[in-house]
Amino acid sequence: MELGKDYKLFLDHIxxxxxxxxxxKVVYINDQCADYIKVxxxxxxxxxxxxxxxxxxxEKLLQGDTAYHTNFYFDEGRMSVSTQVQLKKEGTVVGVLExxxxxxxxxxxxxxxxxxxxxxxxxxxxxxxxxxxxSTKYSINNIIGSSKKVRDLKRQIELSAMSNSTVxxxxxxxxxxxxxxxxxxxxxxxxxxxxxxxxxxxxxxxLIESELFGYVEGAFTGAKKGGKKGKFQLADKxxxxxxxxxxxPLSLQPKLLRVLQEGEIDPVGSEKSLSVDAxxxxxxNQDLSxxxxxxxxxxxxxxxxxxxxxxxxxxxxxxxxxxxxxxxxIRSLNIEMGKHITKVDENVYERLCDYDWPGNxxxxxxxxxxxxxxxxxEILTEEVLDVILFRNNNGKHPFYHMENGKHLIEQVRNNAExxxxxxxxxxxxxxxxxxxxYLGIARPLLYQKMKRLxxxxxxxxx
Length: 462
What we know:
14 strands; about 45% helix; elongated
């Protein structure tokens, strides 16, 4: 096949090809086009385009700067989508060429379906990009495992995401309660709005109110000029995640209850209430119903929070997910630590599965990271695990024995410190300001120690 000899073959196979000159007369029409519009090709040459094909709009392109135009034709039961192109010679328009991109409804339906599919995929991509940029660090895909417990958990997350009800997430320390909260937000209609987190333990009692509800200018000494928005306002139209809700001071619980009931907040120092639309997701590592019975948590607030309860299972109840969790952590640590571990010995999994993991996934990830520091090759072996772990007589409790039993000394020290703080808090009727003064430390440091040593109101009860 040669270009010079076979150009007519090429032109004849272009759908609906027709050319007009400066006067709007047909100078070329291929057989395919002539057959499609039911005219004689030879007799059409030299005739005005309107005489050959009345619906044509080609003449409009003979004038002006528009070089291309797309046109739809519906004539005598025929449908076509064509492209018209100005033909220029030395900068002057000398004619117009037109060819069809589509010549039947089935082709148009197929094109539209493919275009719609492409748009859906593109929109899905951009939704994910905006969600990642605007919202949370985690999604439901970050919940690793395929056990029934995990499948049930994911189903609860999906159901809660379709609702606007308050969610109460209960689970032991290290089970991934915050990950669940992120996942709910990311799947909800609020995903493109803010996800705001506040920890009930992370600040002194005197600051929690202003942190949650904000304050107006002049509300107290040291207040910022112009005031400050609280977490509820920052989470408006989005989600407010209150972690460790069990540590929320009793004095503040009525105000939180009012927000849940009325959808209004009272900034510190303000005489006006503000409406807010923030979905509340709360998390606790204790059974709130027990705290209610013990008088450490308001019953009415508990019922307002416990609309959609989700219980995150501890690792020991989904131990079959441990290999997947280990592999996932190794993949991320390989990048962070510059390692190339590609395999884990089966004996390692047996050892890890034989432990009840009181610290749950957080403790597991800590053990894996410690072990990876001692791996020089591509395999995580039982020998490497033995560098940081050994079992006691019943084979259930691993101890870290780096640096000649330093962990054991630290454990005794922590127990003694915990007992001391509990006794001091009891002595001052849980007045943390007086307890901190008695201990000779700042109150924020006391809060940090209480969190680290897992000291709760139950431990201080009389």
